[in-house]
Amino acid sequence: MTTLQSCLRRLLLTLGVLFAFLNAACASTMTVTDLAGRTVTFTKAPERFIVANYIANFMMVGGAVSLNRVVGMTQDGWQQMRLGEYRVLTQAFPRIKDIPSIGGYHDSILNSEKILALKPDVLIINTAQYADNSQRVEVFEKAGIRVVVLDYHSMQPEHHIRSTQILGQLLGRQETAQRQCARYREILTTIEKRIAQLPDAAKHRRVYVEGGSKGVGEYGNSYNATVLWGAILKRLQAANLAENIKQPYAALDREYVLSRNPEVIVIVGSIWQNKHESDQMRMGLTVPESLARERLSGFAKRPLWQRLKAVQTDQVYGLDHGSLRCMLDYTFSMYLAKVLYPDTFADFDAQKEIETFWRTYLPEVDAKGTFFIRLNH
Hints:
- By secondary structure, this protein is an alpha/beta fold.
- It contains 15 helices and 15 strands.
- It has 2 domains: 143 residues, Nitrogenase molybdenum iron protein domain (Rossmann fold), CATH 3.40.50.1980; 176 residues, Rossmann fold, CATH 3.40.50.1980.
- It is globular.
- The termini are far apart.
């Protein structure tokens, strides 16, 4: 071998090593664009997570093993606000109780000292937490903690999908995330296409939705067109009584509800630990159907409600509020689509769908409960 050939060989070997190093570096670098429009770059796959919101979504994408990577989460008030979810997740995964809490489950309060002390690679928050903690976010990022903003609250399909795709990237579970997104998109697209083919006269049924946390004696929150149940109803082209209220959610006046005479009434429930426990609407994980039906009956017997068309025609329903803000909440779009357009969506089975989702993505959880009911049926 000549000197020139030897030099060329060494050069080629050097270049090969260099290219291999660059490829490895590129493979380990990951960039996501979060739901606040921020570009977040990771130089290596994150291993230590603080989940300040959406722990159910996190585990539905990551599977049971993903909990081993959670070093902190918002536990303050979780048991009081979503007792059913708390019970089934902690029963299936007792380790959850030992994970340090870094703030409130149902608010935007984050404990900066705890977060910094836990030294996570990434902090997952929602859009409200991001808006209320801008200065803290800067502190976290200067400390080397990547902050990723997700959004399952606005009920915008693309936000659900993008948030799930981001979780898939962060957890190395892209295939699972894509399966969830594909089914979510398939159902909502089917709903949109079928409703679009209906005559206008078949649409715009008057619907009243109320959060039943305050019990029968006090009207609870309803939701405008931008969030939660209100966003679902807008997509279904229903005439939501609260569609145009200024706040995202607020209680409607009794006189207003009575004057609008809703054709469909939906009382959404959970298990809230508060002073109204004796007659609040109970729905969701761990709730027996008999109890849910008993509570819904109490709402239907409110003063003057017997005059309402929805009550007279048995169009009073109970739905699980706690299962919103999650990829499986497309099942509630399925259920309400069938309520509003029974012939058009006769093939939909929301109960079977929600059972399949839990069994597929978190089979360790005993996901029994009551998610959908109709009074007198």
